[in-house]
């Protein structure tokens, strides 16, 4: 098997690395961990820069933070660190919105944390937070995750369903594959 280096792939498509990293590495645990550090960091820097430009305008909280900090581009890893949301960002909603069952306003709040358009989500029949989360799951590409609320306020994180599915595939790859010289078979991935 001829191994395509990440450098060759970088020239071909950093978007493949960003949008389908598992297949970028041929679903191979070995290839994922055999890429040179310089090659990987170059891919990561390019992807980070592109993602920032893609989402800067569509994620309100990111846009406001970047504007406040004067960040217009991220080219180095340290450039992105100030843009990481603190844990409090995911519990910055007024708690009274849940108590008063104002899931329309909770949806508007959550919309500021994601690039997914939540403006068409109809929450009029939601009577509790579980129904609201189920509704978001049904009507959007999000899988909303909540914390246990040990600080008194639950964190609400908008996670992409596709990312969650890819995480499970990656978990299986890491758990069941071993370092090999050839491409893994379908059966070794689907165990």
Outline the secondary-structure elements:
Elements: H1 6-12, H2 14-19, H3 21-24, H4 29-34, H5 37-55, H6 60-69, H7 77-80, H8 96-99, H9 103-111, H10 129-139, E1 142-146, E2 156-160, H11 161-176, H12 186-189
Antiparallel strand pairs: 1-2
| Rg estimate, integer Å | 20 Å
- Total helical elements: 12
Provide the helix percentage: 40-55%
Give the DSSP E fraction (strand runs of 2 or more residues): 5-15%
What structural category do the secondary elements indicate? mainly alpha
Question: What are the main properties of this structure?
Answer:
2 strands; two-stranded antiparallel sheet; mainly alpha; globular
Question: What is this structure, in a nutshell?
Answer:
This protein is 52% helix and 5% strand. It has helices at 6-12, 14-19, 21-24, 29-34, 37-55, 60-69, 77-80, 96-99, 103-111, 129-139, 161-176, 186-189; strands at 142-146, 156-160.
Give a verbal description of the structure:
With about 190 residues, the chain is mostly helical. Helices cover about 50% and strands about 5% of the residues. It contains twelve helices and two strands; from the N terminus they run H-H-H-H-H-H-H-H-H-H-E-E-H-H. The protein has a two-stranded antiparallel ribbon with strand order 1-2. It starts with 5 loop residues before the first helix and ends with a helix.
């Amino acid at each position: 098997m001829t191994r395509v280096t990440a450098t060759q792939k970088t020239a071909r498509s950093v978007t493949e690395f960003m949008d389908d990293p598992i297949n970028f590495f041929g679903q191979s645990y070995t290839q994922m961990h055999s890429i040179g550090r310089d090659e990987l960091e170059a891919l990561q820097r390019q992807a980070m820069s592109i993602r920032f430009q893609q989402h800067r305008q569509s994620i309100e909280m990111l846009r406001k933070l970047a504007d406040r900090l004067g960040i217009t581009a991220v080219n180095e890893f340290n450039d992105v660190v100030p843009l990481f949301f603190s844990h409090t960002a995911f519990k910055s909603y007024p708690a009274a919105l849940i108590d008063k069952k104002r899931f329309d306003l909770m949806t508007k709040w959550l919309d500021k944390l994601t690039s997914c358009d939540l403006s068409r989500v109809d929450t009029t029949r939601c009577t509790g937070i579980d129904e609201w989360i189920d509704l978001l799951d049904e009507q959007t590409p999000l899988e909303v995750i909540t914390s246990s609320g040990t600080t008194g306020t639950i964190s609400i994180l908008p996670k992409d369903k596709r990312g969650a599915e890819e995480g499970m595939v990656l978990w299986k790859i890491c758990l069941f594959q071993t370092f090999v010289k050839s491409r893994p078979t379908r059966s070794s991935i689907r165990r």
